[in-house]
Amino acid sequence: xxxxxxxxxxxxxxxxxxxxxxxxxMCPYAQKAWIALESSGTPxxxxxxxxxxxNGKPDWFWALNPKGTVPIVTMNGGDDVYADSELIxxxxxxISQGILTSPSALTDDxxxxxxxxxxxxxxxxxxxxxxxxxxxxxxxxxxxxxEMNELVVGPYLIGQQMTLADxxxxxxxxxxxxxxxxGTAGEEKLRDWLDNCLNTESIKRTIVPSWWWWW
Length: 215
Fold this sequence. Notes:
4 strands; alpha+beta
């Protein structure tokens, strides 16, 4: 087990502007941060931790996030620490120079659409999806998917540009698609969006064979 002092030394060896991504690759919340990093063009170091097991989480991990959850992103040599996936999206979006379009390059209307999608994922899809998977309440989930389908502009969620909305949505919709399928009548635009994401290299790099749901 590495101590927090060891982690501090590792950070100090990095350049002043270095970014470290502490994650478990099976977690959907970590995946959305991973997609943003991969799509931003920002160099980063990835460091995996085991969230379960006999040895527990290392001390340096608890020092970065006392809640004990992933993902965590540190920037500027460890001076800036983000221990929430939504905060990470905002931080990475601000510095993106890759395929991920920075909010500063979007119009007010486009940013409103991004915010709407992020809100739908966190406040509607996450609880409705959990209820459907655990309790078999699929009609409510299918109804929500059809409502979301009407909001898809294509090829990405708000149009030609990949945004933080796509980063937030993909891990959750992809998991639903893996076990229950997306693309029935009234879900065609969501299906096309998923297929487009699956052909986006920065997103493909975050897909792993073993994964968790979000609870």
